[in-house]
Amino acid sequence: MNPAQNPASRPGGRDEDLATMRRALELAAAVRARTAPNPWVGCVVVGADGRSFEGATQPPGGPHAEAVALAAAGAAARGATLYTTLEPCAHHGRTAPCAQAIADAGVARVVIAIEDPDSHVAGRGAETLRRRGVEVTAGVASEQSAELLAPYLKHRRTGRPWVVLKLAATLDGRIAAPDGSSKWITGEAARADAQHLRAESDAVLVGAGTVRVDDPRLTVRSDPPPEHQPLRVVLGRAPEGAKVLPAVEAEGDLGTLLDELGGKGVLQLLVEGGARVAHQFHAGGLVDRYVLYLAPAFFGGDDALPVFRGPGAAEVEGLWRGRLVSVRRLGDDLRVELAPAAAAGAESEGVVDASSADGEPGGG
Ligand SMILES: NC(=O)c1ccc[n+]([C@@H]2O[C@H](COP(=O)([O-])OP(=O)(O)OC[C@H]3O[C@@H](n4cnc5c(N)ncnc54)[C@H](OP(=O)(O)O)[C@@H]3O)[C@@H](O)[C@H]2O)c1
User: Fold this and answer.
1) d(CA 234, CA 250)
2) Are strands 52-56 and 81-86 parallel, antiparallel or unpaired?
3) Residues 186 and 220 placed together within one structural domain of the fold
4) Rounded CA gap, 154 and 210, in Å?
5) pLDDT attached to residue 174
6) Residues 184 and 145 in one domain
7) Which residues are CB-contacts of 224 (< 8 A; sequence separation ≥ 6)?
8) Co-location of 142 and 164 in the same domain
9) Cα–Cα dist 327/334, whole Å
10) Residue 35's domain spans which residues?
11) How far apart are the C-alpha atoms of 348 and 263, rounded to whole Å?
12) Which terminus, N or C, of the chain has the lesser number of Cβ atoms within 10 Å?
């Protein structure tokens, strides 16, 4: 069909809605590490004359994405279409309600990727807009938006953080030598990626065993340094003088710990090991994403420390099976991201053959 005759590809049609929402998702992804405990949202305002204006959520206390894009659009917002990756808020928080500001600006149509499950919003943003005569289209690129906002959505639905378990292992599934040494199994590119994971997490956790052997700082090392370092959490006690201190030293039930961290506004918890801690989180069904950096190396025996220390499946029927979310080559290593198979969410994306690597060139 001639694209001009295809209603999906007309201005304001499904194709344009999807393409513009994808741009809004890029804007949201770019502020991923800077907005917690607020959601990272992207917004594009397309004026009646076709010009577009962009915004993304500013750090807490600053304007939301919609307010930034509306300010950029000024008078061009009248009669415009506004695309936002999350339903606009309808309540007075630290900033004025976006739904009201959108209607006040004279926006004709709002395209929303997903509803905001926060109890203050939950449909009320869209309802406010409709009541004010603004046309609302919901559900555009909803899977991609839900994937990008997964930590926020889980936190608002359950009160608990999104848990990412990250480990560096050899291809024979070992994370440390029998003497406890594990620096460095993977190369620079994988370690840089792990730093990125840390930067987008609100809290980072390790076990006391790892503190005793590795004495990690668990800080984000970036240039410029981040505005906030993640909260550091040790399971068990850190020895006096440990570099990780000051840290929250926790013990006991992990579910209670997750509730407490959620209550502190932690949207994403990065669990960095070691093997006993990894086993506890995994066996408890508490992991939302597994990120394994796999080096093309073998310890070559059964005396090195495995990824999980503790009892596992007793028979093959009991195998835990995950869903591959992505596989990427990073320098000489592989980054494999898995989700529990039962988890709802986006389809696998970016699962590539290692030979078509999109990793960083020539890394560690
Ligand atoms: N390759 C990698 O990515 C990677 C990452 C991290 C660590 N590692 C390696 O892993 C090794 C350490 O692993 P690991 O299995 O020996 O130790 P670990 O998992 O780091 O820590 C286990 C210890 O944490 C404390 N703990 C755990 N759960 C607890 C709970 N619910 N309540 C209270 N305390 C709790 C206990 O401390 P107490 O013993 O004091 O009771 C337990 O022995 C090191 O060799 C390190 O280099 C490798």
Assistant:
1) 6
2) unpaired
3) yes
4) 28
5) 98
6) no
7) none
8) no
9) 7
10) 3-152
11) 31
12) N
CB 162 within 8 A of CB 155: yes
On the 0-12 / 13-18 / 19+ scale of CB atoms within 10 A, 126 is buried
Query: Do 139 and 220 fall into the same domain?
Result: no
Same domain, 126 and 237: no
- Ligand 1 pocket: which of 193, 205, 235 to mutate (most atoms <8 Å of CB)? 235
- Asked if residue 275 is part of any domain, the answer here is yes
Q: Clarify whether residues 122 and 169 are in a common domain.
A: no
* pLDDT tens-digit readout, 159-200: 999 999 999 999 999 999 999 999 999 999 999 999 999 999
Structure tokens at 206: 């390790």
Burial of 303 (0-12, 13-18, 19+ CB in 10 A): exposed
> Which residue reads 């500013």 in tokens?
58
- pLDDT tens, residue by residue, 101-123: 999 999 999 999 999 988 888 88
CA distance 95 to 228: 21
* Ligand 1 neighbourhood includes 182 CB (under 6 angstroms): yes
For CA atoms 238, 176, 219, 203, the dihedral sign is negative
Q: How far apart, in whole angstroms, are the C-alpha atoms of residue 350 and residue 338?
A: 12
The answer to whether the CB of 348 is under 6 A from ligand 1 is: no
- Which of 152, 184, 199 is the C-terminal boundary of a domain? 152
* Total of domains in the chain: 2
Please, are residues 161 and 203 in contact by the beta-carbon 8 Å criterion? Answer: yes
Q: Is 235 in the pocket of ligand 1 (CB under 6 A)?
A: yes
The mean pLDDT of the chain is 89
- pLDDT in the model for residue 228: 86
Distances (CA, A) of 133 to 32, 76, 79, 137: 32, 18, 12, 13
pLDDT, tens only, 10-43:
556 888 899 999 999 999 999 998 888 889 999 9
- The verdict on residue 329 lying in a domain is yes
Contact of 281 with 254, CB cutoff 8 Å: yes
